[in-house]
């Protein structure tokens, strides 16, 4: 006990490159300045993202110190670090930390896994031992293979008589680069017979849908990664907000169902048969509309209670784009057609917006809403200058009278339209706004779009419309980072002028 007490109170400093890092109770204090070097220069690092005011974080602190001591005594390759998210907000954002405490394991600088078990030392050490061992467990005997399959929802096992063969090396390379599921490898002949496999088979075992799936593609790491991504998730997943952030899919089919109704099972069965056809591109998600926490999904996809049962497709984007079927006929045929039309681009996203005013053309500046935006700005015979603004934006309001004068300047020019749209109440396909107000010119003909970066005067804006390619005004070829930096400078200058 005296050794532990001494260990817990010691605060040390270590060198990482040229930087000195504080160490509290065996845990390195990580900051924006030292984080990258620290995790990339070590085989394994477990990082605790915490906040000093968080009660659960405070409870974890002595357990985490106990983990550090246990790892040190066993000469484990794992080191521990911690990040105070109240001081290092950018690090928390970089690693998508949404709750605290969050424990993230890194391997040679890359994220390996997030710990989701009990926050007690024994369980954390047990998890680390399993995660930081060989890329695949060497399974001796049928009972060990069966134990691994039963322990996890998804496991991948390679059946190789010669574990030093080239194919086995590819499998182990894949296992070493993949952190989402556990892996096993076996040369046990009884296991080959028990699971009806042959030498070289790679099998994914899961507790849902098809319980046993053999890899059948060309054997390489990329092919195995695709196989795992497609087969490790259910054909239909239960809705959770984080699901819509899943990488590697082109869209999400959301089924809005009252799970207490008799038809919900029939609809899911029909959808499951379609999901098999599109699992490379589309993720199917079931939303139980009777669960209060799922109301956010209904609101996001504009689904009303009277619409249920129904479906929507959500397209991953900076702002989720929603696609609506022609009817609520939820059969395998209609679901398949909806997905095919979405993938082929035959259907357009639904944009919500304000009602179109009867006098939207009155005055020198047209008023645009979601429903008339595209028909106006993509008129191939017109140059269209659009001001994008929000009701809450004070500087946007100051720009309006200048825009009116620009509109008056071009009142006799039949090839120029000056317009404005309030994007706080109107959704549009263009959501690339680093700041507001923003002025964009949609050129006639090919409808090339140029963002205005000039002075906020009637003369300067009018000259831009007449000769948009003069000078270094456009930024259509610049990166988002460059555009964001210029936008910040531009808005600061605009504020001074206004």
Present the secondary structure layout.
Blueprint: H1 2-9, E1 11-16, E2 19-24, E3 27-29, H2 35-40, E4 44-50, H3 55-73, E5 78-84, H4 89-94, E6 102-107, E7 110-115, H5 121-131, E8 137-138, H6 142-151, E9 154-159, H7 166-177, E10 183-186, H8 189-194, E11 202-206, E12 212-214, H9 221-231, E13 236-238, E14 251-257, H10 263-275, E15 282-288, H11 295-300, E16 310-315, E17 321-323, H12 332-344, E18 366-368, H13 370-377, E19 383-389, H14 394-409, E20 416-422, E21 438-442, E22 449-451, H15 458-466, H16 480-497
Parallel strand pairs: 3-5, 4-5, 8-10, 9-10, 13-15, 14-15, 18-20, 19-20
Antiparallel strand pairs: 1-2, 2-3, 4-6, 6-7, 9-11, 11-12, 14-16, 16-17, 19-21, 21-22
Helix pairs in contact: 3-5, 7-9, 10-12, 14-15
Describe the overall structure.
The chain is of the alpha/beta class. The chain folds into four domains: 110 residues, Glutaredoxin; 96 residues, Glutaredoxin, CATH 3.40.30.10; 109 residues, Glutaredoxin (3-Layer(aba) Sandwich), CATH 3.40.30; 101 residues, Glutaredoxin. Helix content is 35%, strand content 22%. The chain has 16 helices and 22 strands. The strands form four sheets. The chain has a seven-stranded mixed beta sheet. β6 and β7 form a beta hairpin. α3 crosses α5 and α7 crosses α9. Its EC number is 5.3.4.1. It catalyses: Catalyzes the rearrangement of -S-S- bonds in proteins.
Ends distance: 69 Å
Number of strands: 22
Number of domains: 4
Give the strand order of the largest sheet, numbering strands 1, 2, ... along the chain. Answer: 1-2-3-5-4-6-7
CATH superfamily of the largest domain: Glutaredoxin
Which sheet architecture does the biggest sheet show? 7 strands, mixed
Structural class: alpha/beta
Shape: globular
EC number: 5.3.4.1
Biased composition (Acidic residues): 479-491
GO molecular function: protein disulfide isomerase activity
Protein name: protein disulfide-isomerase
């Amino acid at each position: 006990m005296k050794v532990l007490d001494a260990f817990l109170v010691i605060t040390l400093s270590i060198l990482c490159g040229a930087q000195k890092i504080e160490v509290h109770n065996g845990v390195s204090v990580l900051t924006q300045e030292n984080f990258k070097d620290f995790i990339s220069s070590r085989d394994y690092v477990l990082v605790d993202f915490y906040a000093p005011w968080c009660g659960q974080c405070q409870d974890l602190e002595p357990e985490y110190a106990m983990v550090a001591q246990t790892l040190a005594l066993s000469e484990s390759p794992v080191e521990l670090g911690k990040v105070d998210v109240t001081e290092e907000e950018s690090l928390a954002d970089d690693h998508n930390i949404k709750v605290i405490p969050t424990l993230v394991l890194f391997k040679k600088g890359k994220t390996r896994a997030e710990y989701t078990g009990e926050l007690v030392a024994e369980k954390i050490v047990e998890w680390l031992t399993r995660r930081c061992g060989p890329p695949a467990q060497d399974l001796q005997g049928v009972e060990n293979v069966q134990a691994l399959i039963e322990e996890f929802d998804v496991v991948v096992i390679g059946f190789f008589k010669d574990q030093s063969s080239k194919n086995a090396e590819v499998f182990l390379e894949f296992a070493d680069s993949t952190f989402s599921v556990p892996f096993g490898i076996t040369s046990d002949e009884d296991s080959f017979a028990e699971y009806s496999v042959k030498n070289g088979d790679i099998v994914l075992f899961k507790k849902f849908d098809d319980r046993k799936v053999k890899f059948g593609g060309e054997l390489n790491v990329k092919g195995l990664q695709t196989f795992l991504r497609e087969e490790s998730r259910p054909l239909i997943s239960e809705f959770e907000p984080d699901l819509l952030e899943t990488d590697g899919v082109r869209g999400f089919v959301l089924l809005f169902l009252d799970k207490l109704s008799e038809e919900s099972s029939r609809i899911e069965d029909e959808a499951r048969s379609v999901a098999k056809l599109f699992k490379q591109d589309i993720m199917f998600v079931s939303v139980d509309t009777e669960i209060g926490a799922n109301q956010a999904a209904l609101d996001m996809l504009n689904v009303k209670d009277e619409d249920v049962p129904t479906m929507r497709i959500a397209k991953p984007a900076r702002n989720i784009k929603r696609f609506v079927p022609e009817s609520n006929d939820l059969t395998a045929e209609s679901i398949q057609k909806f997905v095919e039309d979405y993938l082929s681009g035959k259907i357009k996203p639904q944009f919500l917006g304000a009602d179109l005013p009867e006098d939207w053309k009155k005055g020198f500046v047209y008023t645009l809403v979601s429903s008339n935006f595209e028909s106006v700005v993509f008129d191939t015979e017109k140059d269209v200058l659009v001001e994008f603004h929000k009701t809450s934006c004070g500087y946007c309001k100051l720009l309006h009278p200048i825009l009116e004068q620009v509109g008056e300047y071009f009142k006799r020019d039949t090839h120029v339209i000056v317009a404005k749209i309030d994007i706080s109440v109107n959704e549009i396909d263009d959501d690339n706004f680093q700041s507001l107000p923003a002025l964009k010119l949609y050129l006639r003909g090919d409808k090339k779009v140029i963002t205005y970066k000039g002075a906020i005067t009637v003369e300067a804006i009018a000259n831009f419309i007449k000769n948009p390619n003069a000078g270094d005004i456009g930024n259509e070829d610049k990166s988002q980072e460059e555009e964001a930096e210029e936008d910040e400078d531009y808005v600061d200058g605009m504020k001074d002028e206004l």
